[in-house]
Amino acid sequence: MIYFLHLFLRIPFCSDCVSRFLFGSAARTPNNRGANSAVRSTWEAAVDNSGTSCNSERDATFEEVLHLITAAALTIYPDLWGGDYSSEAGAALEAANGNCGWGYSKDYVDPSKNGKCTGHYAYDDRTCTKDCIVVEGIYWASLSYVGGLYTLDQAGSTKNKWLMVTPEEGMMVLPESVDNAIFLKKGSPALYDLMSDTTSEVHAWLPAVMIDGTYMGVPVKEKCTDEEAAVKWMYKKKGVKIKGTCGSLEEDTETNIAKACKKSQPKKKCLCVCAA
């Protein structure tokens, strides 16, 4: 499940502002506001999207799908991503709070109010306890790392909860004139290290670039001689593929394929093909 959803978030990205699902050309995507999602040095020049045709609304897919994957990751890799402050991610997020408090502990202080507290992450939601704080924090950190919050309007709208929207040192820190605003790599080196590794085994579910609203599955070819792959086969009739199970095959031969199809769908003529 983690691998499938990881593929969903790491799809190839197009650079044009064509029609997008629900929210059109969402401004959170660097590509859509005149930058290049894969070239971080282009992001700073595109923080002001007020003069573009980009939709200021957000595509919630990034957040909701990432939450789903995170829930799996914190179960499979609890020491690293677990939903409490003893995991590596949890400890980094607790440290990022400084003395700004949380809604659930009834001591929340707005981190964007200069001189009130020293943290970069605080959440004023009394229903959001430790596990929620960790899941939400992973989302904010990941979104910041891929440039999804690095605009004037996004930095302003999230400042009461997250002040590490600037991903890299040397970039203009947003939002301006907020003492606790800081770039992610300096504000939390631990979080930056966690988010910037998108290839190793326990990190491979993290996105490397910001989604752009164009969703397309990444085909995974499977060996048709493998018994496990065989149960994922599909049969087709008159050129139309219909999801189904062709059964378990010992060999990748036309005879075995025909037998399996006949057994699976005795009243239909079908041809089994390996799912692409």
Give a description of the structure:
There is one protein chain. By secondary structure, the chain is mainly alpha-helical. 31% of the residues lie in helices and 4% in strands. It has a three-stranded antiparallel β-sheet with strand order 2-1-3. A hairpin with a 2-residue loop joins strand 1 and strand 2. Helix 2 crosses helix 5 and helix 4 crosses helix 5. The two termini are 17 Å apart. The N terminus and C terminus are likely disordered.
Termini gap? 17 Å
Total of helices: 10
Strand order of the largest sheet: 2-1-3
The H-and-E topology, N to C, reads as: HHHHHHHHHEEHE
Total strands: the figure is: 3
Outline:
31% of the residues lie in helices and 4% in strands. It contains ten helices and three strands, in the order H-H-H-H-H-H-H-H-H-E-E-H-E. The chain has helices spanning 2-9, 61-76, 78-81, 88-96, 130-145, 152-157, 184-187, 189-196, 227-230, 254-264; strands spanning 234-237, 240-243, 271-273.
Based on the model shown, name its key terms.
mainly alpha; 3-stranded antiparallel β-sheet; 31% helix; 3 strands; single chain; 276 residues
Q: What's the layout of helices and strands?
A:
Elements: H1 2-9, H2 61-76, H3 78-81, H4 88-96, H5 130-145, H6 152-157, H7 184-187, H8 189-196, H9 227-230, E1 234-237, E2 240-243, H10 254-264, E3 271-273
Antiparallel strand pairs: 1-2, 1-3
Helix pairs in contact: 1-2, 2-5, 4-5, 5-8
